[in-house]
Amino acid sequence: MHNLGGSCHGGEFLLSDGQVLPGWPDYMTSVDGLFLTGSTSHPGGSVSGRPGRNTARAVLQHLGLDPASVMGPT
């Protein structure tokens, strides 16, 4: 009831025209080696474990490793 225009998982990630907030689905930041994860990263807190798994995949790719060879299928 108090989440008008937002989300209990970290705020609203859509712009007024319905576009996804730029950068929100990205896990890599402008700081080398710093990645985002948790309930306020894509796809949000209602999908248990998925933000961490997605970030782990981004880290592995950044390190030049194939996530599928380390993590298995998605």
UniProtKB/TrEMBL annotation:
It comes from the Bacteria. This is Amine oxidase domain-containing protein. It comes from Angustibacter aerolatus. The lineage of its organism: Bacteria, Bacillati, Actinomycetota, Actinomycetes, Kineosporiales.
